[in-house]
């Protein structure tokens, strides 16, 4: 059985934490906690029997800086010196290919040096496809998970509405096409399942949705559901189950990593704000319970605060109302580690997308909504945010996929 190679546009804190964790787990030096694909059971059998084993997983990446995975991991400050030393040689071997990058989409990284050049977007796509082919030269199966910086928010335009227009836009260098969309297009054309871990608009456009169906490739997104939103999708269904009212939910975060620096720019924050704000309305359904949730004010803030490093602190102030309208407050202070929460999500997504692709799934995989702040909906189906409903849907699909596929050996 060939190995699975996980390709990440973006060799940053999340992707290097994933890589180091897999390498350390293989050596028995760390536990892959938080990965359902490692710890989950289905009908009494371990889910990982169905999936690419950890010792057959390898990596590849693109980044506009040419630091090795070791240098990035060391600079990101997520992992201890002891953990890094144990896998230093393996991490040093992972060096990113040059990126398709345009600073107009991520202004905070203007001047990044390790960038591809080409005559047109289509030319850049061909270069990404060549990279993908070099990554699977030994017959590996590959999946791609966008772990790059959050791009500035741009509403989709006419060029995103059909594959024909999109391909014309690639040839004509249409400035509305984002770099992440070039990776998404290249992945689908190369038959590589694709997931988007960031909040930018990438494969969630009609052109690439159509293309994924046409090429028989699974796609999923978007924006890893890690800290604050994970808590929201646990707490809000609980409050709603007891029909407690909610008047306000104020969420604020401080973080000091490169992701925080990028999100400090208003255009990039806008992408994040949209995915974070959508969650509560969909969970509480104010249209069905206007007396309990109709007047809810929901605010989200992110502040770049260098001393916090990768250890994001998220505060939530929740104003709730109970019996006879007496007000109460819940305060949540989550001192989390962003990349420690995100790394197992990348591992699960990569393995489950690989399973889905091997079983013949194509197009939007909304059953992977469990992992996302803003699940990519299939047309005509509503978006589910409740973590426990999402878990059930995920398990049902894995069961269905396993029925269609012999176990990976
Ligand atoms: N960690 C979490 O909890 C979490 C949760 C949800 C979403 N995310 C998203 O995941 C992404 C990765 O997070 P991170 O903490 O690793 O960020 P990071 O800043 O450490 O890494 C991102 C990397 O992407 C690179 N990059 C930027 N544009 C690129 C391009 N066009 N092609 C290839 N590489 C490019 C940057 O140089 C950087 O090295 C971010 O978009 C973040 O918003 C993270």
Low-confidence segments, given as residue ranges, are none
Order of helices and strands: EHHEEEHHHHEHHEHEHEHHHEEEHEH
How would you sum up the major sheet?
A: 6 strands, parallel
Strand fraction equals: 15-25%
Strand order of the main beta sheet, please? 4-1-5-6-7-12
Number of domains: 2
Averaged pLDDT:
93
Cα distance spanning the termini: 6 Å
| Ligands, ions, cofactors | nicotinamide-adenine-dinucleotide
CATH superfamily of the largest domain: NAD(P)-binding Rossmann-like Domain
User: What structural category arises from helix and sheet content?
Assistant: alpha/beta
How would you briefly describe this protein structure?
The protein is 40% helix and 17% strand. The chain has 409 residues and is of the alpha/beta class. The strands form 3 sheets. It has a 6-stranded parallel beta sheet with strand order 4-1-5-6-7-12, with helices on both faces. The protein has a 4-stranded mixed beta sheet with strand order 9-8-10-11.
């Amino acid at each position: 059985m060939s190995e699975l190679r996980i390709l990440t546009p973006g060799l940053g804190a999340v992707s290097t934490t994933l890589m180091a964790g897999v390498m350390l787990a293989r050596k028995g030096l760390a536990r892959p906690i938080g990965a359902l694909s490692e710890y989950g059971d289905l009908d009494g059998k371990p889910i990982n029997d169905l999936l690419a084993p950890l010792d057959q997983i390898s990596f590849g990446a693109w980044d506009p800086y040419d630091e090795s995975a070791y240098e990035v991991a060391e600079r990101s400050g997520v992992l201890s010196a002891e953990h890094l030393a144990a896998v230093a040689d393996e991490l040093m071997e992972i060096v990113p290919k040059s990126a398709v990058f345009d600073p107009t989409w991520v202004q905070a990284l203007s001047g990044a040096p390790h960038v591809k050049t080409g005559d047109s977007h289509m030319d850049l796509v061909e270069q990404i496809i060549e990279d993908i082919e070099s990554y699977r030269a030994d017959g590996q199966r590959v999946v791609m998970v966008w772990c790059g910086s959050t791009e500035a928010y741009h509403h989709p335009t006419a060029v995103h509405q059909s594959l024909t227009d999109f391909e014309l836009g690639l040839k004509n260098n249409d400035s509305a096409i984002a770099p992440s969309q070039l990776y998404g297009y290249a992945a689908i054309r190369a038959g590589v399942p694709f997931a988007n871990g960031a909040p930018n608009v990438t494969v969630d456009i009609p052109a690439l949705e159509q293309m994924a169906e046409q090429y028989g490739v699974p796609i999923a997104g978007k924006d890893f559901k890690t800290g604050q939103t994970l808590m929201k999708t646990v707490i809000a269904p609980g409050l709603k189950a007891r029909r407690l009212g909610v008047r306000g939910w104020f969420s604020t975060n401080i973080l000091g990593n490169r992701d925080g620096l990028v999100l400090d720019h208003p255009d990039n924050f806008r992408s994040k704000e949209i995915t974070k704000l959508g969650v509560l309305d969909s969970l509480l359904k104010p249209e069905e319970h206007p007396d309990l949730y109709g007047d809810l004010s929901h605010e989200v803030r992110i502040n770049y605060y260098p001393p916090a490093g990768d250890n994001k602190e998220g505060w939530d102030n929740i104003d709730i109302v109970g019996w006879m309208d007496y007000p109460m407050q819940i305060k949540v202070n989550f001192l989390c580690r962003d990349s420690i929460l995100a790394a197992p999500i990348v591992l699960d997504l990569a393995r489950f997308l690989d399973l889905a692709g091997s079983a013949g799934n194509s197009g939007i995989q909304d059953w992977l909504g469990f992992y996302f702040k803003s699940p990519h909906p299939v047309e005509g189906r509503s978006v589910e945010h409740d973590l426990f409903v999402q878990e059930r849907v995920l398990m049902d699909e894995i069961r269905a996929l396993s029925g269609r596929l012999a176990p990976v050996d």
